[in-house]
Inverse folding.
């Protein structure tokens, strides 16, 4: 039965709305870079490198430990060629997983950590590589620019400037990530308002490492179109009703939530309760490298560990298509294509 489910999942057309480029890299590529640049993080062995960039069975499940992987990953973005290679590989890996539409988000500040480049240059490199890879593969790629709430508003303004400059090159939205338990999203409200005036979608990480209050803030005060994670909304029944009423979409990343200590295991994950309450949930990987998963793996884990069915998975995939940060005509075309592909898939 488990093998049958996996076969169906592999054959099923998929959509990913919440995947970070920085967490979607190939371990083999990182190892090659580490060797080329003689980084102290590695001594010629992929297995020596792995614990620095991937959650391990012995790792404490906490947001601090989870984020520590990204501190290590920031050491690898060392040239235009590397960033373009990583982007192409992330798109190719998604296409190989039968993902037909992906929104790949990235943080210009993280990619520019070691470079003396402008954000516009970094964004152009990712746009060029993503568009080239998408044109060669059976996958549509849209990009989201991320900023961190624990970094300065000035950095956020530079990110939004770059998004505006490249909105005709595949930038569909902006994202606010970072340490939600320690830093409010409110200072970024003017940026969200400006982003919406430009026609960009707004997604905000909330309800992951802090409670339901950050989800309510993102929806009611900051006008988020979608919420990254958002699973702790389940702690506030009135908020769940609000999410249903407004049709706010949650970008749920179950395995990531387990690895970062938000929930203990799949059996107690709020995804099922939120979905059955009528909240518009979607299922995503967050960081395939860090979590050591593909979207196929993620969906298989949900089917194995929760009461959700394959039809529930398909419905959430359609929800993802309807929530894509695309112009209305392109979004309708994506939904129609997905429905057609589903009709052809057993």
């Amino acid at each position: 039965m488990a093998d049958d489910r996996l076969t169906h999942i592999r054959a099923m057309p998929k959509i990913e709305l919440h995947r970070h480029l920085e967490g979607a890299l190939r371990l083999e590529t990182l190892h090659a870079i580490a060797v080329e640049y003689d980084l102290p993080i590695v001594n010629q062995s992929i297995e020596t490198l792995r614990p620095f960039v991937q959650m391990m069975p012995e790792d404490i499940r906490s947001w601090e430990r989870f984020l520590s992987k990204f501190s290590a990953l920031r050491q690898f973005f060392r040239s235009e060629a590397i960033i373009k290679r990583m982007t192409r590989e992330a798109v190719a890996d998604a296409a190989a997983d039968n993902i037909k539409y992906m929104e790949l988000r990235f943080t210009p500040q993280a990619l520019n950590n070691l470079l003396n480049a402008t954000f516009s240059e970094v964004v152009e490199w990712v746009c060029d590589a993503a568009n080239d890879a998408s044109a060669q593969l059976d996958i549509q790629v849209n990009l989201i620019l991320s900023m961190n709430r624990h970094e300065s508003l000035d950095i956020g303004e530079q990110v939004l400037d770059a998004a505006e400059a490249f909105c005709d090159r595949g930038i569909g939205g902006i994202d606010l990530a970072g340490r939600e338990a320690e830093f409010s999203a409110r200072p970024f409200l003017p940026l969200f308002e400006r982003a919406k005036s430009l026609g960009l979608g707004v997604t905000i990480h909330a309800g992951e490492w802090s409670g339901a209050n950050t989800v309510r803030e993102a929806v009611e005060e900051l006008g988020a179109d979608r919420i990254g994670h958002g699973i702790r909304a389940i702690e506030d029944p009135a908020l769940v009703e609000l999410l249903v009423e407004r049709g706010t979409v949650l970008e749920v990343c179950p395995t990531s939530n387990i690895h970062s200590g938000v929930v203990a295991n799949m059996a107690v994950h709020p995804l099922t309760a939120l979905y059955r309450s009528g909240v518009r949930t979607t299922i995503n990987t967050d960081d395939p490298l860090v979590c050591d998963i593909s979207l196929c793996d993620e969906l298989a884990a949900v089917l194995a560990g929760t009461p959700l069915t394959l039809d529930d998975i398909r419905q959430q995939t359609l929800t993802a298509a309807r929530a894509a940060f695309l112009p209305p005509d392109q979004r309708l075309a994506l939904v129609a294509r997905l429905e057609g592909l589903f009709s052809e898939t057993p």
